[in-house]
Amino acid sequence: MKKIAIIGAGISGLFIANLFRDNQDYQVTIYEKNNSINLDEGYGIQLSTNSIKLLNKIGFNTLENKDRFYPDKIDFYTIKPEKKICDLNISDFNSEDCKYTTLKRSKLVEFLKDRLNDNIIEYDHSIEKIEKNDDQIYLTFNENKKVICDYLIISDGVFSKGKSLISNNEIKSSYNNSIAIRGNISRNKLQNLNENNISLFMGHNFHYVIYPVNKDKENYNFIGILKYQLSTKELENYSLFKEETFIQDIKDKIKNEFSINILEKINNIKCFPVFVSKGYLKPGKNIFFVGDAFFAFPPSFAQGASQSIEGASELFDNIINSKKNFYDNRVLKVKMINNRSKLNQFAFHASNPVVVFFRNISLGVLTKNKKFLQNYLGKIYKN
Q1: Where are the alpha helices (DSSP H) in 167-243?
Q2: Which candidate, 246, 305, 244, places its Cα nearest to that of 273?
Q3: Neighbours of 192 (CB within 10 A)
Q4: How far apart are CA 259 and CA 366, in angstroms?
Q5: In this structure, what are the phi and psi dihedrals at residue 136, rounded to the nearest 5 degrees?
Q6: CB 226 within 8 A of CB 178
Q7: Is residue 235 part of a domain?
Q8: How far apart are CA 204 and CA 1, in angstroms?
Q9: Which of the residue ranges 5-9, 150-154, 231-235 would you say has the lowest mean pLDDT?
Q10: How many degrees, rounded to 5, is the angle at CA 52 between CA 342 and CA 109?
Q11: In this structure, is residue 18 part of a structural domain?
């Protein structure tokens, strides 16, 4: 029996552990640095049909319908003036049992965790050293805890300690010159929005998205991305982003962007600096990255969670079938999505009036062009 060590109990790590759950040829253990998995996070995520198809293989379609929502379209608006430009029918990519889905991230993590035996996850394990000798991998965790495995899967996020150890600290994520603003908003505080759709608002160096996270549509997820310069000193002080004065500065910076200041209606506002990957690292034999540890995208294509799931599925197939093409195939897909994420962010944040004018016209045309949509989205959603 081959031993697999997974570093990090996030979406990708938990999902690939589920894929191996009933395979008697492998023994899987997840090593998580925290003392528990946080299931209190209320913010939402979007899952396109490429990931829903894979999740359904492990029973995601049995999750209670009340805990998820199926949007029909994405409505595009300008922030100031607040005006709808067009809509994109994402339900065109749906099938009967495989639909574009929004839900709380914690609900997905809880589903993935609850399908695993409790003894699969070892908490309070922070990776400190990775060594390779012949066909075995030697891991050292905090308090000198030792593990030997045949395969190592590193899925510990955008600030991956495992990736830093493998690359001798040469491969790091970089600040994307933007701040993410998260929160939630009650339905009774929303006006003039279609409750069945995702609403995307575009402004000057700023965009935000609102969508329901469950069937009753009482609470909506809010995620905004603001172009924002930070010094190296500010980035090193992560507690800064939790301070009320910093959050108020962010509110003040963008309040003039709104016809109606949506930020005053949002509960539990939190701010995070956005970090993205700048390159790719191919580790040694039988060592793999998945999720944000493989590559972290700019948050403007809503594919972070879906690609974590898709990448984990591809890696599972490569391991059990002794394939050698995981890295090369994943890089090709990631490059395509990364380029489209950058293009989306440029379009969503356009500030030049001429660029905005042509963007709005182009969106109106392209969101109804089926051939374009099959190329731009279909290649990803229908994978």
Answers
A1: 232-236
A2: 246
A3: 9
A4: 27
A5: -115, 155
A6: yes
A7: no
A8: 56
A9: 231-235
A10: 90
A11: yes
Task: Tell me the two tokens of residue 175.
Answer: 């600040």
Q: What does the alpha-carbon distance between residue 184 and residue 109 come to, in Å, rounded to a whole number?
A: 19
Is residue 71 within 8 Å of residue 200, measured between CB atoms? no
Q: Domain of 53: which CATH number?
A: 3.50.50.60
> pTM for the complete prediction?
0.95
Distance separating alpha carbons of residues 235 and 313, to the nearest angstrom: 34
The chain-wide mean pLDDT, for the chain, equals 93
Distance CA(279)–CA(301), nearest Å, equals 19
The pLDDT score that the predictor gives to residue 172 is 85
Per the domain annotation, does 208 fall within a domain? no
Which tokens go with 48?
A: 């396109």
How many domains is the chain partitioned into structurally?
1
The arithmetic mean of pLDDT across residues 1-18, rounded, is 97
* CB-CB contact of 121 with 34 (8 Å): no
As given in the structure block, the two tokens for residue 128 are 């400190």
Among residues 3, 134, 111, 1, the alpha carbon closest in space to that of 61 is found at 111
Taking only the tens place, the pLDDT of each residue in 28-49 is 999 999 999 988 777 999 999 9
CA angle 361/378/317 to nearest 5° reads 150
Q: Mapping DSSP to helix (H, G, I), strand (E, B) and coil, where does residue 194 land?
A: coil
Structural domain that includes position 329:
2-173+277-381
Query: Considering the domain boundaries, does residue 210 fall inside one?
Result: no
Q: Where are the alpha helices (DSSP H) in the chain?
A: 11-20, 49-56, 105-114, 161-166, 232-236, 244-254, 304-320, 326-348, 353-366, 370-373, 379-381
Instruction: Please answer whether residues 259 and 81 qualify as being in contact, where contact means their C-beta atoms are separated by less than 8 angstroms.
Output: yes
Contacts of 153 (CB under 8 A, 6+ apart): 4, 5, 6, 7, 13, 16, 288, 289, 290, 315
Residue 296 phi, psi (nearest 5): -105, 125
